[in-house]
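Dissemination and training. As part of the outreach component of the grant, students in the summer workshop were shown how a complex can be specified as a set of sequence lines and then modelled as a single object. The example used during the hands-on session is reproduced here so that future cohorts can follow it. Participants entered these lines:
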Amino acid sequence: MLILISDAFDKGLSGKLSKFGEVTDDKNRVNEADVVLIRSKTKVTKEYMDAAPNLKLVIRGGVGLDNVDLEYAKEKGVAVHNTADASSIAVAECAFTLMIGITNHIGRADSSMRNGQWIKKELKRTELYGKTLGIVGLGRIGTELAKRAIAFGMTVIAFDPFVESSDFAEMKSEMKDVLNVSDYVSLHLPLIDSTKGIINSETLKEFKDGAFLINTGRGKTINEEDLVDALKSGKIAGFGNDVWYSDPPETNPFTELPNVLMMPHLGASTKENLLRIGDIVENIITEFVK
Ligand code: NAD
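and obtained this result:
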């Protein structure tokens, strides 16, 4: 059996998997691979699967499966698994990092010091304590974020059409009921037809004036141009972002805006998460071999 590690995983994983067969990171050997391990970079399209006649199993280290053509995989009899539970804490901490970073002007404070500036008067921080956090998409990651926000003394509300109640957030029946009152809105949505561009010029009007927006879900759930307008007008006070239209983004409309804090899709990239993902990958292959 040939296992192709196509994207970045924990360095020790290759050694752990060698008991199952040969392990390679040579992408040119996809035509021989029985198992392919991917994260978000490799796109397992129809063409990719057609070029891999031995392929039987694709494992996505992480949550979103939007980089795999699931219908064609089913047609070809290629099993597809993800490691959905592993990343929740890592991504929730990333969303929290962006929320606390943007509201404390961490990016501007740091770069101004490096440039020899002292902009103490210009930078007024805002406390999270006593503020309302609105979570859109209260799944695994949204719930982990809610727990952390409660510890900071925030009121947590959420919208998720598939979640009726939660121990960690007051559920609202419509998204606008969350957007209307939240000081911070954090998106934890999968990229599906109903969520594509869900934050746009119309829904941005529903936000409280001067709210902060955080996105660690998927880039395409936001219409970036509409958000740029809202950031320029001050309707949205700040934006913390980890996810993009593509990795890396072909064009980035936020680079000139001081009230934006950006990360290069690092949500799941903690050392601890890569180890957790590695353990789950090992279990999936063990079951598969059985
Ligand atoms: P999850 O499936 O547990 O939660 C997603 C939630 O979104 C579900 O509860 C679902 O009911 C809800 N939802 C679906 N459509 C909705 C809508 N229109 N409005 C409101 N809620 C809606 O998934 P998760 O593990 O919490 O991950 C969430 C997303 O985070 C993933 O789909 C992935 O795109 C993203 N993610 C990003 C990173 C990163 O590195 N930044 C890492 C892992 C996952």
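Residues 271-289 form the longest helix (19 residues). Students were then asked to discuss how this feature might be tested experimentally.
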